[in-house]
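Record format v2
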Amino acid sequence: MKEREKTNIYGVGRRPSEKQIEDALAAVIASTKRKKRKLNSLEVVDKILLLAQGLGSLNEVSRRVGLSREMLRQILSVRDCSNEVKTFVKKGKLTGFDILHRLSKLSDSDQHVVAKAVLKGELSSDDVRAIVTLRRDLPHVEIGEIVDRIKASRNIKQYVVYFVVPSLGKRDRAIIRARFEQAIGARTIVSLKSEDDVGELIITGEGKKRLEEAARSKGNTKRAYVQSLIMRE
Amino acid sequence: MAKEKSREAIPIELSKIEISEQNVRKEGAEQELDELAESIKAVGLINPILVKRKSGAKDEFELIVGQRRYLAHKKLGRKFILAFVDDRMSEDDELIKSLVENVHRVEINPADAARATTALYKRFDKNVEKVKKVSGLSKRRIEQYVDIEELASPATKRKLKQGDVKPQDVQRAIRAAQGNMTKADEMLEMMKKYELDKYQKGRLVEYGEEHPTWSATKIVRESLKPVIERSVVVPLSPKLRDGLQRAVDMYHKGPDEIAVEALEEWLKKNGYL
């Protein structure tokens, strides 16, 4: 069996210097409290272990970096992920600590299947948590079947965007719908209607993602982008 | 005799020690005892047990904390065990110490933990904060245990002791049944039969609370089906957006979650909830 790469707190070596501790503190804070992270999750784990060695305890690390001990434990659980998952982490494909923590509770073979589905955008962090719980209840069922069951059982998320619109005729409505379809894809639009001066656009999760991307690429907020689609001459 | 706690552990004859009524662990004490006995044999007793002198007796003791260590010594055929003697403890102190020592370990039986936690909860005039402070349990866990102790049927408590059901599921069934024990038992049975997942169990609680007149079967059947969940996309000013982003980074929560909390607080404050 392939041996799992595991960082050992006692394997860090000599007590780190003050400079190393200061650098590690800055790196951990920068990589856990900001959206754009400097380090991948495994590198963060190494820094936390170095800090635990240098500061004497996880409690002290928790105090200095301003993360709860529970959060630190969750981050450290990345060490229990399979080597394949760690490769995804190193390549920057899997980044969320919560997902990695939940994955670490599964067997190596299950982790692989679930991580691939996460990478395809098919599963959220909540879905992975639901999979972990169901897996405990159903240890003999194929992991693929458990993933499918969770996908079929979760609520269907839709997003509603309200916007101000001039009174629309049938033809205008068709034109506006065509603009939205062009911007975010026809299949992501659940409905588009208007009453008096208020328009209501209902879109799928994928539609919301595309709307955000389109708005960002134009340097706009979602609402301003929607408004620009409505008002375009 | 002045009441005090011995500063150093002293060897006490096992035959002079009896398990206290206040000891939380009623079941499961014998589990994995061999492993513990082996460890004691190899490296000795690392943490001495805690005993209290029996009232009026000079060398007879009640065991407060360390039942498994005590049983492991018996198993090894030892005559003595190292113990701290604390004569200052009230019944509350004994219960607290025993609970705190036991609930954080995996082997503790949830039915026993529920009984002990509820006893503390009642002694502290139903003050969850006080129970939280002395036991180290989360507020959620305390409420779960109290719900189980006060609202679960004897049959369900037996199942909990046997490990046939999980405390979280018992609490879900209790909440969904709105205090109706028979309905809760039915729902618990069906949760197991249909192997409900986390999402379905969430819907079970939601429907049970929303529709108290629905039967257990209808609630479970409905909870099997996914529903459409709609979120409204709200425009935010750059200032609000920045603040929300900082809160997301700091608390590791989703923006939706934080927005819902803020909305809930506002609605409560202004009397709409």
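DSSP finds 13 helices and six strands in chain B.
The first strand of chain B starts at residue 10 and ends at 13.
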